[in-house]
Structure formats: C-alpha cells, structure tokens
Amino acid sequence: MSSPHSKHSVTQSVTRSVSPEQFTSGAQLYLILFTCSLFLFAINLIKRLSLCSQADFLVDFIFGVLSASFIFSSLEKKMSHSDSLDLDRYANLDKSRRSASRNQTRQRTKDGEVLCDFCTTRKQKAEKSCLVCLASYCAEHLQSHYDYPTLMKHKLVKATGQMREKVCAQHDKLLEAFCRTDQTSVCVLCMMDEHKHHDIVPAGTERTEKQKQLGTTLHKSQQRIDQRIKKWQDLRQAVESVKHSAQTVLEENERIFTELINSIQRKYNEVKEMVLSHERTTVTQGDLLLDRLEEEITLLRKRHNNLEKLSRTDDHIHFLQSWQSLSGPSGYEDLNSINVVPNYSFDPAKRAIAALKLQVEEISKTEMMKISGAVKEVYITQEAKEGELKSRRESIVSIDARTVEEPRTREDFLKYSLQLTLDVNTVHRNLHLSEGNRTATMKSDPKHYPDHPDRFDHWQQVLCRENVYGSRCYWEVDWRGTEIDVAVTYKGIRRKGNSNDCSLGWNEKSWSLYCSESKFTFVHNNRSKDLSAPVSSRIGVYLDHGKGILAYYSVSDGMRLLHKIQTSFVEPLYPAFSVWGFGSSIKL
C-alpha cells in the first residue's frame, strides 16, 4: 500500500499532467480518474477544481452508477465498445436526480400518480423508480436502464414519490440494510459508523421475518373485524327486537286497557310511560354502542387495508418503515365486554298485562252477578220470585261451566304459552346451561358458577327465572337420557344439603313429575304415584294458579293427559327441573 507521501505525489502529478482544458471532455476525465489507482484523491481534486458542470456528476457517477461492480482494469476496453456510456445523458440524469427530491411533491397528480423526472414539457406517468438514481422514469426515459449494462444493475421498483425516504438523512446514501438493535434502516456508512457493532441484516432478510409477523397480524385483524361485525349484528338485532317488542306491548296495552273501565285509566298511562321510558333508555344505549362499533369497524378496516397493501409491496424499506406504525397495538378500546342479552323482550310485561285483564274480567263477572242478583231481589209476587230464582240458578251453572272451561287442544294450550329461561343463580354445578339458558345438560365435570345462596349444592336441580301467580300458563319441555323431573315449586325450597326438603317433589313446597326410560311417577310431599301411560320425550305442563290446577300432558302424539291435581297455591310457583345421569338433558 502506498504511503500518504506517495499518494500526495501522485496527486500533484495528476494535477500537473492534466490541464483544466482537458476536463472539458467528460470521457477524458472519466479515463484519467479510473486509470489512476488512487481515484479517491482524484475525486477530491475534481471537487476542489470545480472545472466543469460534469465534475459533480462524475463524483456521484463513480459511487452510484459504477459502484463496486466495475473492474477498473477493463474500463478502457469497455469505453471502446459501441455500448459506451453517453456522459451527456448521465449529466442530465444527475441534474434531474439532484432536483427530484425538491420536486417530489410537485411530480404527483391529484390522484397520487408519480410523474417522470426527465420529461421536460408535459410530464408523463412514471412506470418505475430507480433506487440508485433516486429518480422516477416514464416508459421512454426508462429505456436507458434496459440499454446500458451498467444501468441494468440498478434496482427498479414500482414508481413511488417517496424516494427521499429511502435515502439516509445523515449520509445521503441509499438505505440498504436494517439494524435490529435500533430497529431502523441504515446505509453502508451507518454500518461503519454509529451502528458498527450492531446486529445488522439485509433489508430483504428483515422483510422476510416481518412478513411472517404480518401474516399473523392480518389474521388477528380479520378476526377482530369479524368479532366486531358479529357483535354489531347481534346488537343491532337486539335493538330492533326491543323496538318491535316495545311496540307490541304498547299495542297490546292499548287494546287491553281500552276494554277496562275508566277508573284504571291512570294505571294504563303509568304502564305506557314505563315501557316507553325503558325503551328509550335501552335503545339509546344500544345506538351509542352501535356507533362505537361502526367507528371501530371503519378504523379496523382501514388499518387492515393498509396492512394488505403493505404485504404486496416489493419495496423493502417502505415496508419496514410502514411496519413500525402498523404492527403495534391498534389503540382501540376493547369492546369484547359487550354481551348482548339473549332474551331482550318485553314478553314478561306483556303477560303481566294480559293476566291483569283476566283478573279484572273475572272480578267483573263475579261482581256483576252479585249486582244483578241484588237488583232482581225485588219482586212483586212470590211466583215471579220463584221463577226468577230458578232462572238465576240455571244461569249461574252455565256461567260457572264457561268460567272453568279448560283448554283442550294444543292450540288452546299454546295461547297461554310461557317463555321460560333457566336461572343461572340456582343451577347445580354439574348442570351445564346452553342455548340462551334454555337447555340444561348433566355432565361429570362441574362448571365454575359463582357462589350464590340460591344455588343447589347437592341435587342436580335448577329453577326458572319466571314465576306464575294468579294466572294460567303453559310450557313444554323436551328431555332425553335416563331420568329427569319436571316440577313446580315455591321459592322457599331449601337449596343446601341432601335432605328431602331440597329435593323436588319430596316436600310440601313442590310438585314433580318423575320421568324415566320406563315410566312416569307423580311426587308430592314424600308421596309418589306411578302413572300408567307410555313414556314420552315431550312433556306439557298446564298451571292455573288462581284455580289451583296443575296438569301434566304427553305431547309426543297429540295431547294426552298424564296426571292432574287441584289444590290451593298460596305463593308464586317457579317451574323447576332435575336432571339425573351423565348426558341427560332438558330443553325448554
């Protein structure tokens, strides 16, 4: 290697042997520089002399165009061939490249198209951008990159207006690698300077690694969108159902209360305002959540689209720079805590209003009979009195017959249908609820329900949330497995322990139909009665609480009465069930 003194001597020799006039020819200067083994000193010399407009170009040309790919010993030979470089063309290229970064914003159309940096009159749309030249080319001006062997080695990418982002701000060199230590893109000089001992890999290598993470992120992004859409649909359905159910209740409220006497008009208005107020509150809450979900879905879709675009880019540096902002947490509020209530209906209110109507009608009929009898007590002859009393007795018998008339067909029973849901606060841990808490299945693995004083801790039993008081109701249950109980009970039945006071049917507070694979048995207050009837997988229960009637029906093939009792119920009754044997289940 030559000493600094010898380098200086060569530099002086070159300076003395080359006159300023000789630098007017770009080709001559080109040969002189590359003939000299110390061309770096020649470059500095050219910069100091500033002899011609091509000097600056040649400095960049040596580093950029030729780079390390030229073998210096073959330069003169290459210059003699027909494909020798047109230095005037490269001088123009250099000028355009130097102004490209300043004009990038102006070189784009309104729709984001990138324009050619070399078109002098009407700018044409650029097809490719060169990462070495840091310029964009239309089809015509791009041809030089296909004609000259040196330019063929340049890296061409899809036209982009973000060329400056691919250049090191400190060294003005192309960003070609990625520093994993600092998580940033670096140029070749950065690798020899502040990132010298860092973990540095080629941009393509890091892109491959990040591409794997992108696939996972895209999958999670799509899942998040699907979840939000599902929640939006469920929530929207709930809101519509609330509106529809509220309207149904209002119509029923209107129909029923207009049939009542004027003395209950005030109660009618109270019920109407109660429903409307709750509807407004519920719908307002639902609309707010819908707006939040819609906004989040829009933002998530936008981010997802950006991720998809990023996955298709062939620009490693753009990918890595964009990845930093897109790979992190979305920053959106987690709405997974939104749980749509499965039974968003005003049906319980509707049934309560209907029960009130029946009670008022029955009271009205009874009182009207008393009034009618009192009025007709005034007679002017004994014969008229005896005739009126006979007519009244016949009328009372007829009225009583109509009053106590019970449903006969399944359609008649379904008019009193009661929608039931199982109470999660009462269910035994081995009973797993599903389908909106309308199915209970006996399983060997206990479910971790929270502790609750109403929960059965020994018998595999569950109560319904709804109760029946003073009205008629009907419900059906499908069952499968080995053994179940279909029962009604007062709320005061014991929940803790294995005594009969806790078991459905075996105490004075509950009545039960025991169903097995071979028979039916009715149980109440520690007494049981086997029933002679074919086993059925669907049981219907009819309860007239006011009249003390409880009847069980087989519904598999028509309505077949299994057992019926008439007693006096003094408290509200709750439908209840027992499930015995793993795999056995009941479904409302």
Keywords:
19 strands, 588 residues, seven-stranded antiparallel beta sheet, disordered N terminus, single chain, six-stranded antiparallel beta sheet
Give the structural class: alpha+beta
Classify the helix fraction into a percent range: 40-55%
What's the arrangement of strands in the largest beta sheet? 7-8-19-10-15-16-17
Estimated radius of gyration? 46 Å
- Beta-strand level of the residues, as a percent range? 15-25%
Assembly annotation: single chain
Instruction: State the distance separating the first and last CA atoms.
Output: 95 Å
GO molecular function, one term: zinc ion binding
Pfam family, one: TRIM_CC
Protein name: Tripartite motif-containing protein 16-like
Transmembrane segments: 27-45, 57-75
Task: Describe the overall structure.
This protein has 588 residues and is an alpha+beta fold. Among the domains are: 1-84, no CATH class; 210-241 and 269-326; 347-405; 412-587, SPRY domain (Jelly Rolls), CATH 2.60.120. The chain is 44% helix and 16% strand. It is built from 16 helices and 19 strands. The chain has helices at 4-17, 26-35, 39-49, 54-66, 75-80, 87-103, 139-142, 144-147, 149-152, 188-192, 203-257, 265-312, 316-326, 347-375, 382-403, 410-414; strands spanning 128-130, 135-137, 156-158, 177-179, 184-186, 200-202, 431-434, 439-442, 461-463, 472-480, 483-489, 510-516, 520-524, 527-531, 538-544, 549-554, 560-566, 574-580, 585-587. Strands 7-8-19-10-15-16-17 form a 7-stranded antiparallel sheet, with no helix packed on it. Strand 13 and strand 14 (527-531) form a beta hairpin. The longest helix has 55 residues, at 203-257. It is elongated. Residues 1-91, 93-98, 100-107 and 395-402 have low confidence and may be disordered.
